[in-house]
Design brief:
CATH superfamily of one domain: Isoleucyl-tRNA Synthetase, Domain 1
Helix content: 40-55%
CATH topology of one domain: Isoleucyl-tRNA Synthetase, Domain 1
Strand content: 5-15%
CATH class of one domain: Mainly Alpha
Number of strands: 15
Strand order of the largest sheet: 7-6-5-11-12
Radius of gyration: 29 Å
Structural class: alpha/beta
Length: 560
């Protein structure tokens, strides 16, 4: 696994700082955090370091003098070729071109796994996402959470974490009972009975479809039941709904390692249920009080500013009580080092109390991270889309996938950071024009790489590393830099939990390859050595594009 270039550069800068302190050019001070970044302008070098600005006040010296003392001691060895100092005290570093060209071989060898890092060191991370109530089909907003969680899981995996994807099925509580009663009413209506829906029942046409399927499967089996609803009917309807959710997510290329049922938390089995154990933990820690006939979670000592109901006066656990048991299971039973919950922004008010609950049951509240995402607004050009053309109801995730395809759906969903609201342009996403559809643009760049390699093979040419020094054009240097940037981007995305940067990177890489393709003749039989070098660069670009698309969950075609 190749080390990120930034890490190599940082190590040389730190060594130079220690040397400057050892020989008295700088006074000794406690270690500080420094940042190695890529300048916005290429003329400022490949990397820039702010360590002198951070040290100036501590060592009581002007930043430029500090920067000069360090820069003079940075070894001009791989991967660094040049070092200079720029006001007000930045150390700018330029990479050795020959070294960069040599890294292309590691890229090609890695293939679509290029960019992998080891900062995760095998830590176990669980990402729970989507987890929509199984009382209706997934909506477009659920799709954003699905793509966000899935891409983040792929990024964390690439960064060396051991990742488990999980869907939490809320199959207990009042909403499930209402689902069953609604379905029973619709089932009876299938036989001509005039049965009203329960108050607040689920109105969607999908309930009629479910009832029709139950009739086809079981006939009049539940028609004379005295229960409202029959338990088997509710369970079968719920299973059909979960199956549909699985199918919709599979169509979006989202697969889970584990589907956790809420009802399982209350299953005692051979001993206590998870729910009972978690409640006992709260009581043992004096985090439970009784008032107004209900049982409350008291977490003032943990930073939560109000009490929250755990068990209603009716004796029924709240959704929050299930959440406490669920997170006990994640941290204390299954032993994840970090848990990331991907929630809609409307759940923001639940974050503090859930973290407090994790601490109260014996876990590490800070090891629970909640990634909140904003709403998705559909539009076609300038026109806002609010309802499905097919049903006149809210647009479902399946309808979105059918209209624009999984590739565009995933790419577009990741074009904004999670905390930004999203306008999803259906017209652009459905377009086959790379100028309108960035997903098509990036995929086309990958297909073009493959096409170049086929053309070269037909011409009797092949890639070779023997003459990489011939890659001296500006467009070639830019493309090499973009390819080599991926490992450090993976590290940054993993640490910041921001997978949306993949879309920007993929577009930037595709643009760099396109400019190289348009400017430099790649398949050049009369110049076989230069052609072999450019074919090596094309292979590396294809590997980097394939890796970025793989983490995005977008297909990387060889032909389009």
């Amino acid at each position: 696994m190749a080390r990120a270039t930034r890490e190599l550069v940082g190590e040389l800068v730190r060594n130079a700082l220690e040397l400057a302190q050892a020989d008295g050019a700088l006074p000794p001070v406690p270690p500080i955090e420094m940042r190695i970044e890529r300048p916005k302008e290429r003329e400022h070098g490949d990397y820039s370091c702010n360590v002198a600005l951070r040290l100036a006040s501590a060592v009581r010296m002007p930043p430029m003098e500090v920067a000069s003392a360090i820069a003079q001691r940075i070894l001009r060895t791989e991967p660094i070729a040049e070092v200079d100092v720029a006001p007000p005290g930045f150390i700018n570093l330029r990479l050795d071109a020959e070294w960069q060209r040599g890294q292309l071989l590691a890229v090609i060898e890695s293939g679509d796994q290029w960019g992998r890092a080891d900062i995760g060191a095998g830590q176990r991370v669980q990402i729970e996402f989507v987890s929509a109530n199984p009382t209706g089909p997934l909506q477009v907003g659920n799709g954003r959470g699905a793509v966000l969680g899935d891409a983040l899981a792929s990024v964390l995996d690439a960064a060396g974490f051991e990742v488990e994807r999980e869907y939490y099925i809320n199959d207990a509580g009042a909403q499930i009972r209402l689902f069953g009663r609604t379905l029973f009413a619709r089932y009876q209506q299938q036989f001509g009975r005039e049965v009203p829906l329960p108050d607040g029942g689920y109105q969607g046409a999908y309930m009629i479809d479910l009832a029709s399927r139950l009739k086809a499967e079981s006939g009049e089996r539940w028609l004379e039941s005295s229960d409202d609803p029959p338990e088997e009917l509710s369970e079968r309807g719920l299973q059909l709904m979960v199956d549909q959710i699985r199918e919709d997510l599979a169509a979006l290329r989202v697969e889970f390692n584990h589907w956790q049922r809420e009802s399982a938390l209350y299953d005692a089995g051979q001993s206590q249920s998870t729910y009972d154990v978690a409640m006992d933990r709260l009581r043992d820690g004096a985090y439970v009080i009784e008032k107004e006939g209900a049982v409350w979670f008291r977490a003032e000592d943990l930073g939560e500013d109000k009490d929250n109901v755990l068990i209603r006066s009716s004796g029924e656990p709240t959704y929050f009580a299930s959440d406490v048991a669920y997170h006990y299971d994640k941290f204390l039973t299954r032993g994840f080092d970090t848990v990331i919950d991907v929630w809609g922004a409307d759940h923001q008010g639940h974050v503090a109390r859930t973290k407090a609950a994790v601490s109260a049951v014996g876990g590490d509240g800070e090891a629970l991270e909640v990634l909140l995402y904003q709403l998705v607004h559909l539009r076609r050009g300038d026109e806002r889309v609010r309802m499905s053309k097919r049903t006149g109801e809210i647009v479902t995730l399946r309808e979105l996938i059918e209209e624009v395809g999984a590739d565009a759906a995933r790419f577009f969903m990741l074009q904004r950071s999670a905390d930004a609201q999203m306008d999803f342009d259906l017209s652009a996403a459905a377009s086959a024009d790379p100028r309108q559809n960035p997903a098509t643009y990036v995929r086309y760049a990958h297909a073009r790489c493959a096409s170049v390699m086929r053309t070269a093979q037909d011409a009797g040419l092949s890639a070779s590393s023997d003459h990489l020094h011939l890659l001296a054009a500006e467009q070639e240097a830019v493309l090499i830099g973009e390819i080599l940037r991926l490992p450090e981007l993976v590290e940054d995305m993993a640490l910041k939990r921001e997978p949306h940067h993949l879309t920007y990177y993929a577009q930037s890489l595709a643009q760099a390859f396109t400019q190289f393709y348009d400017t430099c003749r790649i398949v050049e039989p009369e110049e076989p050595r230069r052609s072999a070098a450019r074919l090596t660069l094309t292979q590396a670009a294809q590997a980097a594009l394939a890796s970025a698309l793989r983490m995005l969950g977008v297909d990387a075609p060889d032909e389009m």
